[in-house]
Amino acid sequence: MAEQSAIATVPTGLFIAGRWRATTDTLAVLDPATGRILCQVADATPDDGLDALAAADAAQAEWARTPARERSDLLMRAYHALLDNTERLALIMTLEMGKPLTEARGEIAYAAEFFRWFAEEAVRLDGGYMPAPTGGSRFLVAKQPVGPSLLITPWNFPMAMGTRKIGPALAAGCTCVIKPAEQTPLSMLALAEILREAGVPDGVVNVVTTSDPGAVTEPMILDPRSRKLSFTGSTAVGKTLLQQCARTVMRTSMELGGNAPFIVFDDADLAEAVDGAMAAKMRNIGQACTAANRIFAQRGIADEFARRLAERMAALPMGRGTEPGVVVGPLIDKDAVAKVSTLVADARQRGAHLITGGEPVDGPGNFYAPTVLTGVPDQAQMCHTEIFGPVAAIAEFDTEDEVVRRANNTPYGLVGYVFTENLRRGLRVCEALETGMVGLNQGVVSNPAAPFGGVKESGLGREGGLTGIDEFLETKYIGVKL
Ligand code: NAP
């Protein structure tokens, strides 16, 4: 499908109460590979946000009463519709976000899977019945939807971070207002239209795009009609939102930043470890919360591991994500390129060795060459912040205790990776890592059927898996005197 005709299929208004609404002001969506404007979308005011919340609130009671089987059927229709539209949606995502088409297709499949998973979970909400231990009365325990939910998503996975929240919210019986990232609103707007066509009732799903996120979302958070905030984004913004939520004691789920350690022991299968590092580092051009941020290689294999990784990184075809064969697309914006350049310069100045890459690419797009550094000292800035780019930072280590201590020396705790053929050591290190998730001999952990989330400053709550729906449910206990 031609690029402009794909973009032209996306509604550009606000989606409120089942209707598309234009705004006076608009915001431009750019192609990060060229810097060109793709289109303009609506730019909501705080009043628009409150209208969306009012629509979600008005639809809440009816949606909560809708039989779970009907909610499930709707999600299943949306699952099929997403898959049927894969090529169009993948192209839209590549154009607004930059990731190569192959990865964008993968994200559509991953995003759709959240709808299927939660369609299956919608009809399995359970409760309890038990005699009080003291006798006399009975305990009934029921699950109820938490209510209208505000869902805020980042630009790096513009479709999947949305369906990972919309799926469980709708399955649980919650209505919602979604605020996608301003750099990548098109995927979510296209999804809203798909949900409308799949039969989502008016007001159950609302989408608000804005260039002033704080001004639009704070009044919604402080409004007692909103009962839940599910946020995916940076730890800094997450902390601000948590403070706002404290004022009304609002339920929150927080999927925040990471600083993943990737540990390769001497006894690892080196080919597998290099494959794992490529996946954990280069997925989404390094712009993932799960990205391998600090790679620790044990001294016996460190040189060979770095050599093989650098060979693979240097050979990656870079270019616009729409071009066939491209694996490395552009970063999201010029600030991202500047940040990566600063981090690489800082690490080199502190003694790290550059094996390959190390430069931004001249031109209108936001490209940075795949880069491998060795001997990166723990004090380097890139060990304390998300690199969010195609830069592999390798450091050596000697002992298990030492690497666990260094890996845990961060306020973040989203995910870690461990490569070893020694099962006992593997499990020991998995247990010792202060993270919500670990990949043992695998470089990708994301799976809709698994509980995704972090500890420490990487977040609160879990998305996906058997517990993902609980984030949108309240537990009610009813004491019955017999
Ligand atoms: P971000 O700057 O925190 O933005 C995330 C979302 O919050 C966007 O929709 C953004 O809107 C909005 N936002 C920004 N400031 C806000 C405010 N004051 N009030 C309300 N909303 C506000 O993060 P990002 O740069 O888009 O995404 C990258 C970050 O997300 C990284 O730290 C990454 O690790 C994290 N992430 C975590 C996970 C996970 O599952 N743990 C998954 C993906 C990404 P605008 O776009 O308009 O700024």
Question: Span from first to last CA?
Answer: 66 Å
Strand content: 15-25%
CA gyration radius, whole angstroms? 23 Å
Cofactors, ions, other ligands? NADP nicotinamide-adenine-dinucleotide phosphate
Classify the fold: give the CATH topology of the largest domain: Aldehyde Dehydrogenase, Chain A, domain 1
Give the CATH superfamily of the largest domain.
Aldehyde Dehydrogenase, Chain A, domain 1
What characterizes the major β-sheet?
Answer: 7 strands, mixed
Estimate percent helicity: 25-40%
In the sheet with the most strands, the strands line up as 14-15-16-13-12-18-19
Shape: globular
CATH architecture term of the largest domain? 3-Layer(aba) Sandwich
The assigned structural class equals alpha/beta
Counted up, domains total 2
